[in-house]
Write the structure tokens for this entry.
Amino acid sequence: MEFLNTIINYVFSLAIVITPILAYFKIPTGNTRERILSINLYSLPIILILLIMVCYWPSYYQGYQLENLGYDQFGMSEAERLANVAPEFHDRATMIYNSNFGIGWPLRVIMGFMLILPYPTMVMLLISAIQKKLPTKTVD
């Protein structure tokens, strides 16, 4: 299960990185202002959806793990919460439960989106600069 969790995180993260690159090549050519606006309008909503998935997945997966261990998250005491958990998994269940505290996934989405906001524009400018530096092939 841990391997599946890692694979899902990497796939979503890779999709976030690739989205502006794909959007750049799907957008028809135009002046720079139109392309910057277009790439942001195409890629930022997709990136936001992927970012929500990336941030929500660990929270969902931890709840899934606790449910499979038999942990009662709504118990009033530690003994109540661990009543259905096998004794060899008490430490693991308690560790997973305690890792749920802290910054929640909605705040992670907001902070991540603020950090990733200039990314599509930077990708577009970088690809444009690389394409201008490459020699163009002429057919004789």
Notes: The chain has a mean pLDDT of 87. The radius of gyration is 22 Å. The chain is about 75% helix and 0% strand.
